[in-house]
Every structure is written in C-alpha cells, then in structure tokens.
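User: Here's a chain of 142 residues. Predict its fold as tokens.
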Amino acid sequence: MVKLGSLLGNALQSLFSKPATQQYPTVKTATPIRLRGALIYDADKCTGCNMCVRDCPADAIEILIVDRKAKKFVMRYHYDRCVFCAQCVASCKFDCLEMSNEEWELAEVEKEPFTVYYGNEENVKFILDQAASTESEDNKEG
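Assistant: Prediction complete.
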C-alpha cells in the first residue's frame, strides 16, 4: 500500500521538474550514427548477383536487369515491406548497399511513394516505360 506522504512528495516533485518528452516535430535532435533508415543503393557498384534479394527476409528488394553485360541494373525497393534489418547490406559483397542514418522519416499518406526505383536515371526510365507498355498490352487483352 502506498503511503499518502510519498505519493504527495512524488506529485510535488513532478510538478516542478522539467518534462522528459521531446518536442519532436519542432525541435529535432541528432540521429544516432548506427540508425538504420532508408536503404541507399549505388548502381555503379552493383554486379547483379542478387544476394541482397535472396537474403532479404521481407522480400523488399528486386534487382531488375536492363543489360547484364553492360552491368545496368535498377533496384526496386519497397519501403512498406522492409523491416530495416540490414541483412541486405551485410550480404552485399560489393558495398553497393548501405542504410542511411539521415533519411529515416519515411511516413506517407499514400501507398505509391513506398515503392522506389534506384539506379541511373535512363535505366529507371527504361524499366518504367517497359512496365507501362506491358500494362497497356494487358489492358488491351482484358
């Protein structure tokens, strides 16, 4: 049973102490160095070995091939599936993946921004155009 004196003492102490909460949206603090935020992909280092795809427990990564001989790849990354475990980073032998400690505020209202394409701009455009033409052919058949 709690004694009234200790309860009153705790109440008075809390009344005059500084709040423990942070005013997050208005006052931002430095992020920890080892924070695992958004995935960063360097297309120039990628060899298309797909080790990151095989080891991803959440099936959040896809490597799309533009031209294997020229080593042109695009990574489709699904933020909404990712559990930020960094297994893909550990599996990559070519250091083309890393987790950002700066880009971690990933909340969105719509679902579309959660699928991101990484790679050279022309390769991403090629993949998106290819997907759009395939989709329009499917719509014509159906």
